[in-house]
Amino acid sequence: MVINLSEQNSIAGQFIAELRDVEIQHDRLRFRTNVQRLGKIFAYEISKTFAYRIEERETPLGVASVSVPSERVIIASILRAGLPLHEGMLDFIDYAENAFISAYRKHHKDGTFEINLEYATCPNLDGSILILTDAMLATGSSFHAALKILQDYGTPKSIHIATIIGSSDGINYISRLYPKVKIWVGAQDEELTAKSFIVPGLGDAGDLLYGEKLQE
């Protein structure tokens, strides 16, 4: 299942518009803030799928019945571009446990690349709701590699992927491999370049968030 936030009008469209804008991108603080804002929106939307229980809470004037989430939630991020999305989600799902995965493209001279995994830290996933975040879903290779390594930590009850921009090819790739995973995207773009960058996309999200890197 794919849930595309841009298919319905909301303030998320304003944040995505600013993230795409080459002039506004020069303001790195605003770029990070908009990514964090989208993380909050994703958290709110995904929370509608949670299971809830009724509790009674005492107020100054009586007792109220309230609905609260009843399942463990684990937010996992692919470093480094997934971090601001993670932070935005954690502002709303503040009781969530957390996981982090280092996954990056190692490019070859012939233009191909492979995904290198160097680090993962994760709690037990058994029976939990797992939300995996990264800024972009281009080919889907990083998400695939992350989901494979997360299998070592248990079996979640459900899995959600959250990303700002997803390519049609990448979304279809993950959907074929993981048909039960729900994919949440801010917007979906049709084209990938020869080097597997999303067009029109928004550029290198990691560099725009944290500055250019020497590694290719």
Protein model, in words:
This protein has 216 residues and is of the alpha/beta class. It is built from 6 helices and 12 strands. It has helices at 12-20, 28-47, 83-92, 141-150, 168-177, 205-210; strands at 2-4, 52-59, 62-69, 73-79, 97-107, 113-121, 129-133, 136-137, 158-167, 182-189, 191-192, 198-199. Strands 1, 4, 5, 6, 7, 8, 9 and 10 form an 8-stranded mixed beta sheet that branches. Helix 1 (12-20) runs antiparallel to helix 2 and helix 2 (28-47) packs across helix 3 (83-92). It starts with a strand and ends in a 6-residue tail after the last helix. The model has no long low-confidence stretch (mean pLDDT 91).
Write the SSE topology.
Elements: E1 2-4, H1 12-20, H2 28-47, E2 52-59, E3 62-69, E4 73-79, H3 83-92, E5 97-107, E6 113-121, E7 129-133, E8 136-137, H4 141-150, E9 158-167, H5 168-177, E10 182-189, E11 191-192, E12 198-199, H6 205-210
Structural descriptors:
alpha/beta; Rossmann fold; eight-stranded mixed sheet; 6 helices; 12 strands; 35% strand; globular
Helix count, DSSP H or I runs of 4 or more residues:
6
Distance from N terminus to C terminus (CA atoms, Å) equals 33 Å
- CATH hierarchy: architecture: 3-Layer(aba) Sandwich
Rg measurement, Å: 18 Å
CATH topology: Rossmann fold
Strand % is: 25-35%
Give the tally of structural domains. Answer: 1
- Uncertain spans: none
Helix/strand structural class: alpha/beta
Helix and strand pattern: EHHEEEHEEEEHEHEEEH
Query: Which range best describes the helical content: under 10%, 10-25%, 25-40%, 40-55%, 55-70% or over 70%?
Result: 25-40%
Total number of strands: 12
Mean pLDDT, all residues: 91
Major β-sheet profile: 8 strands, mixed
